[in-house]
Amino acid sequence: MIIEKPQAFVTPEFLIRQATQAWEIGGAASLRHRTFVTEQGIFPDHDRDAVDKVALPLVAISTMASEADEVVGTVRIHETDPNVWWGSRLAVAQGYRRVGRLGAELIRLAVGTAHARGAKLFLAYVQAQNVALFEKLHWQSLGAQDLHGHPHMKMRADLAAYPPIVDPARGWMALTRKRAA
Ligand SMILES: CC(C)(COP(=O)(O)OP(=O)(O)OC[C@H]1O[C@@H](n2cnc3c(N)ncnc32)[C@H](O)[C@@H]1OP(=O)(O)O)[C@@H](O)C(=O)NCCC(=O)NCCS
């Protein structure tokens, strides 16, 4: 008798939006800790910094019976100089990577939101292993740089590829690849 290991359930629908409620903001903080402290070891104790005081947190939320369930992706954006915006701390939970284009959808929300708020330049320090992902999404490399002892690439988004998103708190529903096909 062949007993097949059941596949883990992955919700077919995700909400992509600005985090406004306490559980969403807390879920994003916890996912960042799991990713950048526990998994990648980029920060020894915690990954919080001064940017968190001014940044807009964005999230991808899994659903259960079409209701919001758990934060499974996050990124934050902030303006450093007039019309110059940065994205940082992009993370998708391990079980949700390459299933719903969540990373790509969060980048779309991040750049589109900044675009609607007047961004003329949108930048990020991208971990070296993710440069190809950003290139596919219309980002251009500006130069390699070590950050927190890890190789990064400074990259710039092509704003023409990211239509403005005026109301990020409203967001949208994204589907898994299987469901969207
Ligand atoms: C990087 C990360 C956010 C990507 O999220 P994801 O949800 O898995 O990515 P997506 O599914 O949206 O990927 C979009 C496309 O890029 C591809 N892709 C994903 N990661 C890639 C990578 N590292 N290199 C090249 N292509 C990649 C996907 O296969 C997909 O391609 P397709 O549209 O042709 O099918 C996720 O892997 C992660 O959280 N990693 C750990 C933390 C981290 O590295 N943060 C980023 C700091 S810059």
UniProtKB/TrEMBL annotation:
Residue ranges occupied by any N-acetyltransferase domain in the UniProt entry: 14-178
Alphabetic keyword roster: Transferase
A Pfam short name: Acetyltransf_1
Gene Ontology molecular function, alphabetical: acyltransferase activity, transferring groups other than amino-acyl groups
CDD domains: NAT_SF
NCBIfam families for the chain: MSMEG_0567_GNAT (TIGR04045)
Protein name in UniProt: Acetyltransferase (GNAT) family protein
UniProt source species: Roseivivax jejudonensis
